[in-house]
Amino acid sequence: xxxxxxxxxxxxxxxxxxxxxxxxxxxxxxxxxxxxxxxxxxxxxxxxxxxxxxxxxxxxxxxxxxxxxxxxxxxxxxxxxxxxxxxxxxxxxxxxxxxxxxxxxxxxxxxxxxxxxxxxxxxxxxxxxxxxxxxxxxxxxxxxxxxxxxxxxxxxxxxxxxxxxxxxxxxxxxxxxxxxxxxxxxxxxxxxxxxxxxxxxxxxxxxxxxxxxxxxxxxxxxxxxxxxxxxxxxxxxxxxxxxxxxxxxxxxxxxxxxxxxxxxxxxxxxxxxxxxxxxxxxxxxxxxxxxxxxxxxxxxxxxxxxxxxxxxxxxxxxxxxxxxxxxxxxxxxxxxxxxxxxxxxxxxxxxxxxxxxxxx
Length: 360
Description:
Blueprint: H1 20-23, H2 40-44, E1 47-50, H3 61-67, E2 76-80, E3 83-86, E4 89-91, E5 98-102, E6 110-114, H4 129-132, E7 136-138, E8 144-152, E9 169-171, E10 176-184, E11 190-192, E12 202-206, E13 209-212, E14 214-219, E15 222-226, E16 229-232, E17 242-247, E18 256-259, E19 262-265, E20 272-275, E21 289-293, E22 296-297, E23 318-322, H5 341-344, H6 349-353
Parallel strand pairs: 1-2, 2-5, 3-6, 4-7, 5-8, 6-8, 7-9, 8-10, 9-11, 10-12, 10-13, 11-14, 12-15, 13-16, 14-17, 15-18, 16-19, 17-20, 18-21, 19-22, 21-23
């Protein structure tokens, strides 16, 4: 892939997402600019408490989500006390402005976990499919989560199920903030999507722990993964090998931007690709994009870090790096395209968020 240079441009002021609060992992309180002023009624129910021991108003996360009024105009916080919540959770598109927050500052104190896979039989017949396997599915706009972890603990060694994609968290809305969260699984851990191919789904991920082995950050969202730990894990049979990202970006939209992060794991040297192009459904009109920049790469990353997928060449899409470090980094070559300094000026966090500025 040949990257044509651009003229340098004057840099815009840094957005608030670079503030100390986000950089240090302190939780955000995102207030959408267009949110309505809370009424007395909504203010009275602005925080819903979930606790397994019954000390809150709800014992499951889904029950608290269900209690949020449809089309709520202002932020509602669901505060989750420490514990392991074995359930699936869905936040429908009709319930925007939900803040799902662990009650402590540690992401490991609150775990929402389930074990559906793509090939898991559904009670009513058929199987869940990849997107339907998600432990937590967020279809609403203006959602945020912080200080908790999403897990899919499906056992890949289950020989009775062949389709082993198992999603921990799926988002399909716009203006999503995931701060100080964990997303743990094996194959297809974190699905960052949009409501449809023609809609934008902007996601800002900060100070996260994201773990998996095959295509474990995937989808068509315009997503920033900032200051995060990307952890590579072995397959169920003990073998090493996989792919970090599988973007399915629509043409003309931005894909995945990994920035200021590190990618490592207890896996074999040169066994993982940074990514490959997912043309979902064989859609040749898609233009998958993944940029990995200013990120530390361990020796687990292959010297040719991008590869083809399902007959589509990565060289026909948008994959490149910029100023990465570590044993897994490498110099520019036809198999390892690098952004120029001028191009990199257009590949910053603010460019990805397109005028949306999460505020602390």
